[in-house]
Every structure is written in C-alpha cells, then in structure tokens.
C-alpha cells in the first residue's frame, strides 16, 4: 500500500514538472533578460543604500539617546549628592519634579546608598542591588505595559551620586526608546516604499531601454530567420556608426556571399552532373575526386541525321532543339540513377553506377535507353502533326571495367569515365541505326531474362582479336514495364505543364 502511494506521488510530481516545463517559454527575449538584470541591480543598489542609511540613522539616534540619558543622569547625580547627604527631602522632590517636566523624560528617581527611594516622579524601573553599585552610568533597558496592552520599550540610566568622592546614593533617569524605534520604523518604511516605487519605475525604464538596446539584435534575428528560410536577398538597410553598424555590415556581406555561392552552385550544377557537383561542393578543400577503377555502364545516345537537319534550321532553332531533347535525356537518366557525363555536339554520354553504388547499373542503362526511344517516338507524333522534322536516336550501351576520375589540367578539368568499355560503347552507338539500341553479346547474356533483344551481327573492333557479337534491344520484360511507363508519363506530363506555362506567359 505504501509502495503504491509513493508511486502515485512520484507520478503526480512528474506530471507537475511537465506542466511547469510546458508553461515556461521556450525562448526568453533578450530585452526581458536585460530588463531583469538591470532591475535586479537597481533594486540591490537601492536596498543596500537603504540598509546603510537606516543603520546609520538608528546608530545616530541610539547614540543621541544614550548621550542625553547619561547627561541627565550625571547632572541629577551632581545636584542631588548634597541634599541626599543632608537628607533635604524638599530639595530632592524639587529636583525630581523639575526633571519630570521635560517631555523626553518619563521618570526620575533619587535613591539612598542602601537603595531606599528618597524621591521619585514618573515611571520607575525595578532595580537590583548591583545597579546601585556600578561605578559609572549604567543603561538598563526594560519594558512596561501600556494602557492599550502594547509593550513600550524604556531605558533607565542609573548614575552614582558622590560627595567628596564618597558615594552617598544613586539617581535614575528613565527615557522612552519607543520614539527611537518609531523613527527607525518610519525610516525603514520610507525606504521600503521608495525602493518599491523605484523598482516599478526602474522596471519600466529598464524594459524600455532593453527594448531599445535589443532592437538591433531583433533585426539581426529576423534577417537570420529569413536567410534560414532561403531568402538570401535579405539585407539590413539601417545605418549606424557603432559596433552594431559593423555587425550589420558584416551580416549584409555574409548574405551577399551566400547569395553568390548559391548562384554559383546553381550554375555549376547545370554545367556538370548534379551528383558530381554535390560531391565537389561538399569537399571544397579537396576538389579532385579520387580516380578509381569501377564496374559501370556507359550509354551513348546520338541524333541520327543531325547534320542534314541542322542545314535546314536556324542556329537558334538548333540550340532550342538540342536543349529540349538533352533535358529529356537528363530527366530519364536521373530516373534510373545515372549521371550525365557530358554532351558532345548532338550526342549525350550517360554513366550508370559511377558515383553511387548500383549493382543493377547495366539493366538501369538499358531501361533508360528504352525510355529515351519511346519518348522520342511519342514526341515525333507531335512533331509530325505540326509539320516539323522528326528526331531519331541511335544508342550504344556497354558495361565493364573502366576508370572514373579527373581529366584535364589544373585550370580546366572534368570528371568522367575512360577505358576500353567506354570506347566500345561509343563504337556501338556509331554502328546503330535510327531508333536502335545496340549492346554486345556479353551484356545480353547477363540480362537475357529481363530484356527482349535479337542477335544482329558480329562487329570487328580495331585492337581486338575476336569480333564482337552485337544485339538489338527491343524492349524490357513486363515485370519492369510499370516503372518505365510511369517514368514516361511523368516526363510527358512535365513537358505538357511547361508548355501550358509558356502559353500563359506569352498570352
């Protein structure tokens, strides 16, 4: 039962802690922090000053009270010594009566040597024998009950009365310490109220001042958030001739640098493969990609009859046609994990399994080639309907060992693949006819269960002792057709949407 109760209490405490955490703000503004610090410093200073003033005043009042009591007691002792010795009760009564007329003195008493009360007026304390035996003035604090039931603090000053260096008696002068206490209380209350008022004013002033001081930081925070959202064109236009101004200038320079960097990355990614660009930009300290032998597949796609076609077109039309079809080829290549190695005139060189590990690079290359041919056939339907010349591709594909690395000089280089397998792919492309996809027998044997192809012929390759058997790829098997048709539809839809946007813009 006890264990269950402890578990319940622990669960309740955990729930309360979570509620408090949720109630607390996740981020406390710097203006609030500055205001709290400034207010705390001011309150601490005011409190310290108030305590110092109050202590000094209390000490001064206490000193004045004791000096006055000592003086009155010594004066009374001097005047009463002879009447005590002569037992002149009339003079003694006159002395106590006259002294009691002072409003500061609550009581006065004259005592014989043995402690007998000879004359008194006002309030008298209860004294012991030791009080009459003191050599000097002795202050004795005590309390009395007032008529309203409150206690009043009093101080009685006891002084010996001497005649010719012989103590003949003692005198007592009683003063009220309540006035001193009331003055101290009034001073303390005044200091507390003043401190509270100054705290409120200081809090408001500190918050206003903190807001003013933190406003530049707030501007920087807003600008930084805009940078984080991708708005690299953000700038802080405020001009200042202080450290904040230098900070503004530094932020603007940083934002301009980030914008230039972003623009360079975008342009760079358009001139080289995005995967290559990402790897280079991710390691700017060592921009040379490591040369390494790999097993990969290379695809060459060439427009047939391009020379004759270009003679009938304007240069701008040739550029537009190449850019359009190279964009389709790049899109199709990316769909199957390949990279565009380069564009050579009207020929595109694609590589699969080069930058990223891809155990299925050979089949992905053939799938990409089939997608390019089907896409070209669909586009030619539109071109025929519009009376424009059709565009046909011949494609050669080969896989095997090759070297992936940098070619060029220190001033100009490119990341590419080289080797006998690459040269054979280029040769196969040259041997292909319009709308044909050519591969060698080795590649067909490796992918026969997944592709539809027929034997074409044997090809003699310079530098090779045996001729190379080549096959024409007609299609891929049905198991992978769904992905190919989905990719084809995506490219055609993207083209259709782009044309619609162009119509809207020109309209």
Keywords:
single chain; 55% helix; 8-stranded mixed sheet; 5-stranded antiparallel sheet; 507 residues; alpha+beta; 13 strands; 23% strand
What does this molecule look like?
- 55% of the residues lie in helices and 23% in strands.
- The chain is of the alpha+beta class.
- The strands form two sheets. Strands 6, 7, 8, 9, 10, 11, 12 and 13 form an eight-stranded mixed sheet that branches. A five-stranded antiparallel sheet has the order 2-1-5-4-3.
- Strand 12 (451-459) and strand 13 (468-476) form a beta hairpin.
- The protein is rod-shaped.
- The two termini are 82 Å apart.
Architecture blueprint of SSEs:
Blueprint: H1 2-23, H2 30-86, H3 89-100, E1 105-112, E2 117-122, H4 129-132, E3 138-145, E4 151-163, E5 166-176, H5 178-228, H6 243-271, H7 274-282, E6 292-303, H8 306-311, H9 315-335, E7 338-344, E8 347-352, H10 361-385, E9 393-408, E10 413-418, H11 420-431, E11 437-440, H12 441-447, E12 451-459, E13 468-476, H13 481-506
Parallel strand pairs: 9-11
Antiparallel strand pairs: 1-2, 1-5, 3-4, 4-5, 6-8, 6-9, 7-8, 9-10, 11-13, 12-13
Helix pairs in contact: 2-3, 2-5, 6-7, 9-10, 10-13
